[in-house]
Amino acid sequence: MSIRTPIARVRGLGSARSGTGHFWHQRLTALANVPLTIAFVVILVSLLGRGHATVVQTLGSPLVGILMFLFIGSVTYHMKIGMQVIIEDYVHDETWKFAAIIANIFFAIAVAACCAYALLKISIGV
Question: Angle between the 94-124 and 52-60 helix axes, to the nearest 10 degrees?
Answer without folding.
Answer: 110
